[in-house]
Amino acid sequence: MQSNRQYKKSGVIRLRKIPNCLCSISILWNKNRLIERHKIYESRLSDWNKKNGHAVYSIEDKRIRDFEKMLEAAEAVFPENNKNRIKFSISLVCHNNLELTKKCIASILKYSNSYELLLWNNASTDGTKEYFDDIQSERVKVYHSDINEGFGKPHNQNFDNSNGEYFVVINNDIEVCPNWLTLLAMPFGFSKDIGIVGIEGNCTSLNENGLGYPGEILEYIEASCMMIPRQVINHIGLFDYNLFQFAYCEDVDLSLRCREAGYKIKNFTIDDKT
């Protein structure tokens, strides 16, 4: 349902490095490396203070605090005693476009962690049904419909069949990158007020008719790739498919309901450099 025309190249998700930080965001999920880096900077600051006879505020000190915040966020998403638990339920709904779907799923299987994948086939006629059946497993759940159910209803059904703490909606014309799930989940570790996280590059603002366009103000998250905590969906619901079965406004409606309930929405930046 959601157009991915704004994505450059193959739609691969790329996220820029965090400003004022010496490590790439792509390794934030690795707790041990974070701790090692933190110790290095803490040691440097301690040596500098001893040499100069007093404590000072320095850029190194700021980076130490940045690492501490990142570590806290990572631990909020991946607590030590929950490593084997399914954290992410990835929902993909498609009608035909098998070759795009294969590339999307291949990237998900390669670059995802602590996940389950829920695939919904909307009466495809191009071999999608057979492909889904071939890759079905304990981690990959497959559902077939004899008719095209649209966008919202299948994702809602996938949510009802899911077990993860975070529900991810993704279109089949997107290829993901390493650590993509952790990166999308990181803002929830920083703030309990965030209800939906998406990726920049598509429509974000609304015109006078309630339709999305690529504006400067973040008013909604496009559902081509979004993550929502289960507790938020239990509070506000997911897509209203009775109003928006085949339209492009189900994500707008969801975002507005999310904001009305007091949650914030957030986008990450896409870097199209490979």
Write a short abstract of this structure.
The chain is α/β, with parallel strands linked by helices and 274 residues long.
Report on the structure:
With 274 residues, this protein is of the alpha/beta class. It folds into 2 domains: 30-77; 82-268, Spore Coat Polysaccharide Biosynthesis Protein SpsA, Chain A (Alpha-Beta Complex), CATH 3.90.550.10. Helix content is 37%, strand content 17%. It has helices at residues 31-52, 59-77, 98-111, 128-135, 152-160, 180-190, 230-236, 250-260; strands spanning 88-94, 115-122, 140-145, 166-170, 194-199, 205-206, 212-213, 225-229, 264-268. The strands form 2 sheets. The protein has a 7-stranded mixed beta sheet with strand order 3-2-1-4-8-5-9, sandwiched between helices. Strands 6-7 form a two-stranded antiparallel sheet. A hairpin with a 5-residue loop joins strand 6 and strand 7 (212-213). The radius of gyration is 20 Å and the shape is globular.
Question: What is this structure's SSE topology?
Answer:
Blueprint: H1 31-52, H2 59-77, E1 88-94, H3 98-111, E2 115-122, H4 128-135, E3 140-145, H5 152-160, E4 166-170, H6 180-190, E5 194-199, E6 205-206, E7 212-213, E8 225-229, H7 230-236, H8 250-260, E9 264-268
Parallel strand pairs: 1-2, 1-4, 2-3, 5-9
Antiparallel strand pairs: 4-8, 5-8, 6-7
